Amino acid sequence: MSAQLGKVLALIISDRFGPVVEKVGMYLFQYGTSPLLYIVKNTGLPLGKVKESLCVLIKYRLVFFVPNKNENIANYTFIADNVLLMLRYPKYIHLIKRKFGDESEMIVEEILQKGYWTASDVIQKVFQRLSKNVDNAVSFGQLKDKFVSLVTAKYLVRIPYSEEDRPVPNLILQEGELHSISEIDIQQLVISAKTGQPFCFPDQGVYWAVNFDRFHQDMRDKIIVAAFTRKFDENAGELVRLLLQQMYIRTQPWADVSNPVPIIEIKDIIKKQTGFPQLNVFFDQYVNVIEQDSCNLIRKSGEASGGSFQIFLKEAFTQFAWEVIEQCVLEKLDSKAARIFRLVKLKQYIEPDQIQQLAMIPAKEAKRLSYQLFEENFLQIQELRKAPVGNGPSKSFMLFHINLPQVAQMILELCYKTLFNIMTRRSHEKVMNKRIIDKKQRVDTISMGMRAQGASEDQLADIEEMITPPEREILEKIDRTMKKLTLVELEIDDTIFLLQMYLIYE
Predict the structure, then answer these.
(1) In the chain, what are the domain boundaries?
(2) Is 214-311 a CATH 3.40.50.300 domain?
(3) What is the full per-residue pLDDT of the chain (506 aa) written as tens digits?
(4) How far apart are CA 201 and CA 188, in angstroms?
(5) Cα 183 to the chain's mean position, in Å?
(6) Fold of 85-210
(7) In this protein, which residues make up the domain named RNA polymerase III Rpc82 C -terminal (predicted)?
(8) Do the first three CATH levels of 85-210 and 214-311 match, i.e. the same topology?
(9) How are beta strands 207-210 and 380-386 bridged, if at all?
(10) 333-386+394-402 in CATH: which number?
(11) Staple 505 to which of 253, 314, 356, 410, CB 3.0 to 4.6 Å?
(12) CA distance 28 to 23
């Protein structure tokens, strides 16, 4: 496992669950699958603390367990990818808000905070939150419909359960039960809200969690659509979006290549839309432009009924990975180094002398940049030996080439390092300015309490004056710094996601 990734995971777990849970999680990250007593022995923590930590990690799907050979002892395994996904929670919530509205956003937010929850409990909690605001009048029936919509769209899935009473249960879930909704009694929810008495709801024991895979499909499609929108225009982006939408009807979501999609289906859908009149008029031209694009997203697969097209997702993300890496070379070194990198990409295997001739860069500088790219692991060297003739000396040739999966993994390591630096800097800012941040929170709390009691504007102004102008300037500077660090973190996560998509398809 990567050392840089380990540092990032340690910061995330420590920030959300504390140092004890971090110690247990990082032991499993470093040493792999282990039983409970091994964890207790090697971490030096009390048995009770280790059990509590494992419960937390299992609840948030950061650790899973399976029975040992004798089936009386559990082996625990750390899921590093799910820890990284915790940085992506705001994106998931924003995606649901944009597609389904505020109520669905709250449902997903509550489930992410709890790890998993029953449908009745999460609906009851969201209703309580919405009831505090008179403007947000919503019924239990509406919230139930929102929950069902999320399950139907596969953004929520059921958690596996155990049917046997064993020391280490085998958690199972049939394929048909993944999105099977148990009964949700609206009448009991209404009575419970009015009386405040807890009920044993019919769906007790049926737990739901967020389906990260479904969110990643949307994020993947968004990257593809955004790429074509930037390269051409919104009409091309809409055409690609509809192609991807129709792909899901006849192809597994994560297939490298889709089954053929009849282009006449897309044309019929566009005729019924009113938002893209130019796409309707110039439909054939847009199809030809996207087909001839270097990204190789779609290719024709037949001539019947106007032709069918296949979507080559693997090819598309390979091109995206190339572009990301070329941009990294440009920013890390310079435009001449990027030119050499593109030349090696074009030729696949090339001798150093050819680089100097074809790159139109002075020989000395071309040699320096080539070996600098090699030192930074953007280029690799392949040595070829020629068999000697007679008693003559053997000859060897040095060829530069690019191992794309290796370079993508190296860029991922740089992203993890950058994430660690960002999170460390943010923590440092909080520690260095702890006094003034705590003072601002106290003043805000007092101000909210006074406003709730009906205080006048003059009284509220007096409370605000507890923070002096110099302190206000410092707080504004801290706020700008925090926003900048958060923005960079989100952009780094976008790069990580794109490279992970390439490696998944690779």
Answers:
(1) 3-78, 85-210, 214-311, 333-386+394-402, 411-505
(2) no
(3) 578 899 999 999 999 999 999 999 999 999 988 998 999 999 899 999 999 999 999 999 999 888 888 778 889 999 999 999 999 999 999 999 999 988 999 999 999 999 888 888 898 888 888 887 766 678 888 888 999 999 999 999 998 887 777 788 878 777 777 788 888 878 888 887 777 777 777 878 888 999 999 999 999 999 999 988 988 888 888 888 988 988 888 888 888 888 888 888 888 888 888 778 888 888 888 888 888 887 778 888 765 445 788 888 998 899 999 999 999 999 988 889 999 999 999 988 888 888 888 888 888 888 899 889 999 889 998 877 776 666 666 677 788 899 999 999 999 999 999 999 999 999 898 888 888 888 888 888 888 888 777 777 777 787 777 888 888 888 889 889 999 999 999 899 999 999 999 999 88
(4) 7
(5) 32
(6) Arc Repressor Mutant, subunit A (1.10.10)
(7) 202-318
(8) yes
(9) unpaired
(10) 1.10.10.10
(11) 314
(12) 9
What secondary structure letter does DSSP report for 300? E
Tokens representing residue 230 in the block: 């930037």
First to last CA, the chain: 19
For the question of whether the overall pTM of this predicted structure is more than 0.85, the answer is yes
